[in-house]
Amino acid sequence: MAPSSVSPQFNPLSLDLLGRNLRAEMDGRPRVPLDQVTGFPGAGLYALYYKGDLEIYAGIKDKDIPIYVGKASAGDSNYGDPSTLDKRKLFDRISDHRRSIGEPGNLHASHFDVRYLTLDDIWIVLGERALLRAYSPVLWNTVVTGFGGNPPGRGRRNARSVWDSIHPGRKRAAGLTCNRSYSSAEMRELVQDGIEISLMDAGAERDQKLLEFRNRPAEVIWQEGKSSAQGVKLVLVFRKEVFLEENERFGVDLSGIPWQPADVPQQKTTEEAALDAL
User: Is residue 53 within 8 Å of 23, Cβ to Cβ?
Assistant: First the structure.
């Protein structure tokens, strides 16, 4: 078949092109130690980089591969006015992370660097998506989920996130039942496989590995069942030994939790398990 003489339509605002541009700009910014960031105005995007000594992250230590990508918006006006640029939205968001990182016993702000870009609000949400795609998989966004989320609410029995399982100590996670989908050994394996993909060169092989990684099945450990006639919600446990071992590891008192073994293990993909934890 003869090659087509029709040139593909160019989209200057495509997510892939935007991601490449943002990544090039982010990679060119200086890495600032997280515990030395001083106040600055504006909103935008940022990336955290790990440089500590935890063995689980050894593969990305001191490499230009972010462990977390995030955003801070200036806030839209209901009247369409330009965003206010004198507020320290991005700095405040980075400062919140610095405090959160300081709570667990195995992390400290000095273990991290940060890069950041101040942007107009119109680019921030789309820019975060583009950066996540460009760097994917970003460990604390897609694998070790729970770092940047809001504190758990009261609507259902909450599970400990993967992040709070690997980095125990945050007050918000105290007393939470173990993670729904992964044992500690499975979490370590997940992180190592995610790092391995992060270190691969861009191309079809990496894309295939990433697709397989996202679709890898995860066996559910427990889930909340329907309310009984007495109005009590049972915890259905599909992997009893893992459930007991993981909750013992975190000092969770199961005596006040109505649970019972369930017969058929449930499965989710890695991506579904990550979304379930948000």
Answer: no
